[in-house]
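[audit] Reproducing an earlier prediction to check determinism. Same input, same settings, fresh worker. If the tokens differ from the archived copy the diff job will pick it up downstream; this log only records the rerun itself.
[audit] input (197 residues):
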Amino acid sequence: MKESEGELAVKIARKAIEAEAKDEEPGKIDAPGGFREKRGVFVTLHTFPDLALRGCIGYPEPVFSLAKALIKAAQGACHDPRFPYLRASELDSIIVEVSILTVPEEIKLEDRKKMPSCIEIGKDGLIVEQGPYRGLLLPQVAPEWNWDPETFLAQTCAKACIPPDMWLDKRTKVYKFQAEIFSEETPGGKISRKILM
């Protein structure tokens, strides 16, 4: 994705977040053709300047156009059930980050103990699925916490509310994906790009 499109993606997400926090409609979006393609996307909110998590919601599968996924994820991040609803008074102290995902690929191995060797920290994000349980961690999470691949797998299982060693169980599906990340450096300010691919 071009840097200019990534910057636009963050601006679209911020506009939707501001509208949601003020209880308004996000309005019409004027975006280039690439935003009509279906993409997986996550919108993450951090407080500024301490960069604590304030909300993160997204769609790992490409089920919506990028424009629609951005708006829905941004609105969802304002109401992340782990936090109080985002208030309009917080908008000047929130940093908006957008992660645009590749299509998740299942890691298929006969010997599940080799799974950690298939995961590159700082590049791969993970999804773990077993029956109705599903957990996802974005690629930027593991380096933030200094996790090795085995810990990353265990933490993704924990996110799915299943025991941390269930990635070893053949009934558990493990997927990896990569992301392009665009983030404000300050609230509403300059946007930088990180490619974890």
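[audit] rerun output stored. Observation attached for the diff report: The longest strand covers residues 40-47.
[audit] end
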